[in-house]
Structures are given as structure tokens and as C-alpha cells.
């Protein structure tokens, strides 16, 4: 029952459609990790069961070989006893001939018993060999599925990490988008623009004040000239009156 149970479990896991299982999983990576652990546990259990089954088969095979050797040995003993009986019979010693004939019969009976045990063991050996081969095949299939599953898990983990990294890059790019007025760079640019505007305003103010000073100087120069001309005019009139 144990061997059949292990074999059934091996067959079920070996035939499992990994893609279908992953499609139905909420978290494929966690499911694959669990499946790999299950595969490892069941492979270890299957290996122990197969080792025990092989061990039992080897014991039966050893018993079969012992019966086979025993049958051959008893056959040789029967032949030797029969030959000895013939020698005594040829020598006219009927009593000893009968004795060795009886020994030959006993040897033949033992030979037949060993052959019977061999015949009985043959179906069991054949069945056990078939079971061992099926278990080995199922175990190899499980190991292949485990390799496939491990590869899919590694691929999925790599893709997940790549997607996560790409998402981080996208978020970073979005955060520093210079076209976004709400971004840090946008606010910094606005601050620089205001500072530049203030400097231009100050420059214009300074320029305006300087122009006003020059205009005042020009007005003062004109007034001085007017006063000088008026004084000259009066001086001229005074000279004419005195002459």
C-alpha cells in the first residue's frame, strides 16, 4: 500500500500542469516556492520508498540465486550418488547400491524443492522489478518537473524585480519632470525667474534715477545761461545810458 501510495503521488505530481496552476494562483511566486518545497519533500520520500523497494527486490533475488545454486548442488549430489550406486551395483554390492540410490532420491527431492521455491519467487521478482522501474520513471519525471518549476520561478522573480526597478525609474522620472510646475525643479526655476525679474527691476530703477539726475543738471545749466544772458543784457543797457 505504501509503494502504491508513493507511486500515485509521484504520477500525480509528475503530470501536474504547472502553467495551469500558475494561472490560477493569486501569488505565482509564493505558490511556486511552495510547490518546489513540496516537490523536494515528495522526492525525498519517494527516494526512500524506492530504495526500500529495491532493497526488498535484491533480497528476493538473492534468495532466488541461493535456490538456484542449491538446485544445481543437489542435482550434482544426486548424480554423484547415482553414479556411486551404479558402481556398487556393477560390483555386485546391491545393499550399498540401494543406499546410494536412496541418497540420490533425497538429493533429487531437495533439488525439486529448490526449483519449486524458484518458480514461486519468479512472479514476485518480475512484479517487483516492474514496480521499481515505474517508480524510477516517476521519480525522474518529478525531478524534471522540479527543474522546470525552478526555472519558471527564477524567471518570474527576475521579471518581477525588473518590473519593480522599471517602476521605480518611472516614478523617479515623473518626480523630476521639469515640465511639471509642481515639481521641485519647476519651483526652483520659478524662484530663479523671480530673482532675475527683481534684478532687472532694480537695474531699471537705477537707470531711471540716473537719467533724472542728468535731466536736473541739464535744467540747472539752462537756468544759469538764462541768468548770465540777463545780466549781460542789463550791463549793456546801463552802458548805453551812461554814454
Q: Estimate the strand proportion.
A: under 5%
Number of strands: 0
Helix content: over 70%
**Overall mean confidence score, pLDDT:** 79
Provide the succession of SSEs: HHHHH
Low-confidence stretches: none
Describe the structure.
Helices cover 92% and strands 0% of the residues. The chain folds into two domains: 4-178, Helix Hairpins (Orthogonal Bundle), CATH 1.10.287; 180-233. The protein has 243 residues and is mostly helical. It has helices at 2-14, 18-23, 28-90, 94-175, 184-242. The protein contains five helices and no strands.
Describe how the helices and strands are arranged.
Blueprint: H1 2-14, H2 18-23, H3 28-90, H4 94-175, H5 184-242
Helix pairs in contact: 1-3, 1-4, 3-4
Short description:
With 243 residues, the chain is mostly helical. It is 92% helix and 0% strand.
Name its key features:
mainly alpha; 243 residues; 2 domains; Helix Hairpins; 92% helix
